Amino acid sequence: MQPSARTAFDYKPQVPRSPNHARWFISGLVLPLIGGIVAYAVATQDATVTAPSQPAVSLTSLPPIPVETAAPIPAAMPTSLLGDTVEYVVRRNDTMDRIFRQLKLNLTDLAVIRDMPSVQQSLDQLRVGDIITLVHDQGLVQQLTRRISETEILSVTRGNEGFNAEVIETPLDIQEVQAEGTIDSSLFVAARAAGVSPELILQLANDIFGWEIDFALDIQPGDKFNLVYEQKYRDGKFIGNGRILAADFSNNGTIHRAVWFESKDGKVADYFAPDGRSMRRAFLRAPLEFTRISSNFNPKRRHPILNTIRAHKGVDYAASTGTVIKAAGDGRVKFVGTKGGYGRVVVLEHGGGIETLYGHMSRFASIRNGQRVRQGTTIGYVGSSGAATGPHLHYEYLVNGVHKNPRTVLLPDAAPIPDSYRAEFLTASGQMFAKLDRSGAATVAAALPR
């Protein structure tokens, strides 16, 4: 505690006063004392006659006298962690070094933390939107926490002998939800009416049925979908949707079914048809997120620019400039560059005499001639280069040099589930398809007139 500040006063002795002053001073003291005695006697006498009875007040019923004390330190936070708290939201191109410099934090602390076993990878893999919480005392890091997965938090805390790191488990509560809808105008509108998010619909179209149904053109009014999917909660709070567990899609009277199966040993994890055939084929029906078709495969189409009858040997997918274009199947880059009316074009070889062509790109992804690519790899972006009237993807599918309609060509079947997992698959998928059937039957029953 700092010593009390002292204030200096000038002191000058007073001139002695006369006796008359002393008498007046004594009178000023005695008279108020006598008046107080008289007033006390009168008040006591009145109280014995007129004072009404009052209820007894116990000492314990009196409200406590507030005592001003310092706020207690939470038990979960040791004194060494007290300081300024900053919640930093990761932005594009951020690094831990850049974040520490921007917040004026000690870079030596960062170096020590990053050198801790198993910390560097969890710390440096930043994603836009991540939140890093830092407690510091004049730039010295006391604590750093960040979520590294849906179920884990990395916590680094300064101790007496350096930093301590731990991964804190935050388990999720997974709930299964059912939804179904009928398409009137578009799949997105029907999904929204059924309470299904756009992300789930993209999962349905691209990860499950994208090998069997061309969602750009094949969808029509009256088509139906029925889903069982996961919703994720943490501490009672909804944090997002999970995986689709089972799905039906009725397209033009044909019902397509799929179920997610993951073996107990984790070696098999994918979507399968009820007979155990993988939903994943060697080629996608459409090499970009489903949109609309501006020009279909047509051997007698009139060219929109040349105004002559010229076969349209592919499918044009209208999409905004910059839309991602994916490799339709595993293959090798045969050509990447500019070629006449195709503009910027990529040609892939897939083996078995099959080639795919992607034209009118605005730009290429990081690919080169001879490079091997996997199905779904980004190879470029939609544009309007070459002889194009607007931004779109021109997509061709060739077998031994002969053009085939990408929408109707028979795609090679995927391998079925291995025999060693078939019994496990049939048991698990049977239970999930039963849930799908019960939910659909319950909806039909609820719609019947009573």
TrEMBL record:
Organism annotation: Steroidobacter gossypii
Predominant location: other
Keyword Transmembrane: yes
Domain M23ase beta-sheet core: start-end pairs: 311-406
Keyword Calcium on entry: no
All copies of domain Opacity-associated protein A LysM-like, residue ranges: 87-160
Superkingdom: Bacteria
Cofactor: Zn(2+)
Coiled-coil stretches: none
SUPFAM superfamilies the record matches: Duplicated hybrid motif
Location in the cell: Cell envelope
Residues spanning the membrane: 21-43
PANTHER family xrefs: CELL DIVISION PROTEIN YTFB, PEPTIDASE-RELATED
Cited Pfam families: Csd3_N2, LysM_OapA, Peptidase_M23
Name of this chain's protein: Peptidoglycan DD-metalloendopeptidase family protein
Domain Csd3-like second N-terminal, chain residue ranges per copy: 176-299
Key words of the record: Hydrolase, Membrane, Metal-binding, Metalloprotease, Protease, Transmembrane, Transmembrane helix, Zinc
